[in-house]
């Protein structure tokens, strides 16, 4: 479904604020590698094309989707009833950017690494320095929480998010935020509630790809290739990417946090690149070396091709099984677009 790089999971879960709430927000909060002004890549399957329309992936990324706006307003009403103040966050579901299909290739890795510490677009900081979108609602919520006592903050957070994880590590909608998003996106996606089966089938594609023997076999060969390249301990490419944002980044920060002579330390990209450029190059070189090894190993074992083959097979099965439901879901999305103009 999602195309380019490692974004299979973007249609499998959704994040609102800092809490997983189903699958409504992540479908429009895509990994940031190519700008929203770039033309969208052509769908790679029939299901892919249908979901682009159903999920609004061809929408304006600066406009908050109506379902998310509805959910944020419901969160505010629920929190008010619980005795707290909450302002709808206008930034949720906006500012998303499509991932370039070049991500994960050797050519891309040689030039940008993963885009975590290297600029992929002039005027836009690398991934690790990108600031989250700031909205008036988010700012007011921060100020309100800062005014509360520690005990009240704990009560506020419990009312907002409840206990969203069961004993098996599964997400269960709870609290004002989880329940509000579940109401507008039953079973993870907006649309008629009686389309539960097809929604769950779409949600299950990511896990099905992850557990498919063809994928686990090729990933084992990728891991061996990475170990031979000097990077042991990774089981999948996402582990390598995470290594940049955790180990490499954390170690570099520890060593250079005071080197800029600025109260901003290493938290501001412009400060870093102007005051300690050699240190920045050191971090970028480490990321590039890892990304090139990763991409090279992917190509050697045909990792991307195998994942795409498995994914395409699963998507075709969904279309064959749920053709009528998909047609009705598509009609619902088209009616919504005509009614809202969004």
From TrEMBL:
<protein>
    <submittedName>
        <fullName>Uncharacterized protein</fullName>
    </submittedName>
</protein>
């Amino acid at each position: 479904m999602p195309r380019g790089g490692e974004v299979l999971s973007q249609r499998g879960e959704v994040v609102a604020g800092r809490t997983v709430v189903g699958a409504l927000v992540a479908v429009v909060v895509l990994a940031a590698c190519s700008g929203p002004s770039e033309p969208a890549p052509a769908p790679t399957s029939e299901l892919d094309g249908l979901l682009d329309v159903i999920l609004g992936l061809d929408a304006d990324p600066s406009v908050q989707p109506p379902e998310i706006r509805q959910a944020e307003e419901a969160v505010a009403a629920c929190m008010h009833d619980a005795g707290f103040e909450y302002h709808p966050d206008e930034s949720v579901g906006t500012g998303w950017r499509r991932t370039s299909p070049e991500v994960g290739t050797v050519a891309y890795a040689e030039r940008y690494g993963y885009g975590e510490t290297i600029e992929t677009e002039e005027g836009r900081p690398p991934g690790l320095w990108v600031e989250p979108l700031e909205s008036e609602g988010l700012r007011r919520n921060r100020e309100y929480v800062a005014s509360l006592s520690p005990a009240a903050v704990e009560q506020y957070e419990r009312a907002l998010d409840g206990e969203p994880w069961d004993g098996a590590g599964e997400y269960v909608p709870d609290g004002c935020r989880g329940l509000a998003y579940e109401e507008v996106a039953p079973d993870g996606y907006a649309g008629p509630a009686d389309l539960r089966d097809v929604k769950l089938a779409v949600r299950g594609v990511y896990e099905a790809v992850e557990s498919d023997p063809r994928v686990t076999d090729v990933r084992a060969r990728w891991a061996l290739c990475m170990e031979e390249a000097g990077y042991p301990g990774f089981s999948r490419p996402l582990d390598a990417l995470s290594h940049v944002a955790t180990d490499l980044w954390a170690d570099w920060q520890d060593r250079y946090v005071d080197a800029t002579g600025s109260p901003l330390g290493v938290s501001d990209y412009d400060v870093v690149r102007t005051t300690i450029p050699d240190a920045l190059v050191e971090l970028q070189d480490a990321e590039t070396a890892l990304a090139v090894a990763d991409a090279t190993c992917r190509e050697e074992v045909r990792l991307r091709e195998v994942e795409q083959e498995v994914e395409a097979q699963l998507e075709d099965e969904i279309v064959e099984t749920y053709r009528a439901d998909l047609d009705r879901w598509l009609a619902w999305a088209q009616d919504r677009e005509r009614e809202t103009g969004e």
